[in-house]
Amino acid sequence: MNPLQGKLVRLRAFEPEDDPIVLGWLNDPEVQQYHGTRYPRGLVELKRRNENPQGIRFSSANFAVEALDDGKLVGEVWIGCEHPEMRVGDLGITIGDKSRWDKGYGTDTMRTVCRFGFEMMNLHRIELHVFSENLRARRAYQKAGFREEGVLRDAVFKFGHYMDDVVMGLLEGELILE
Description:
The chain is an alpha+beta fold. The protein has a domain at 9-129: 3-Layer(aba) Sandwich (Aminopeptidase), CATH 3.40.630.30. Helix content is 25%, strand content 32%. It has helices at residues 19-26, 29-32, 43-50, 105-119, 135-143; strands at 9-12, 61-67, 73-80, 88-95, 125-131, 147-158, 161-171. Strands 1-2-3-4-5-7-6 form a seven-stranded mixed beta sheet, covered by helices on one side. Helix 4 crosses helix 5. The longest helix has 15 residues, at 105-119. The relative contact order is 0.16. The model has no long low-confidence stretch (mean pLDDT 92).
């Protein structure tokens, strides 16, 4: 089984032609609603982010998420492990193509990237943070097997109010593939 492919998506490296699409997501308030992003971003900043001379590596693997049915870029996902001896990865995801929301792309991306993390990066645990109000994401994470492990109360201020930051984790062997 291809470790970078799920049922709906394929994880791949970013290409220069992806930049205008990603830039649109970065500046779309609806897409960025549950991200830490607060300020508009420009093409120069995006290109600087993509010109990382070290490329995809264990401590920071950022993948483009491509739909299998039509080959279109639908999102991005990041997984990394700063301390290999701990075998704990951090994870972040954006499904930026709003026409793909609520159609299983987020769940399939989570399952694919977690399978990659366990099988290819030798991780034992994968964790993430999600705003308490982001119910769509929380459902996708739970479908992949993530469990809520704690809540950081009023830890995020955005759009004029505080939200809780929910910590979720997935251990090796807990990934739900169906």
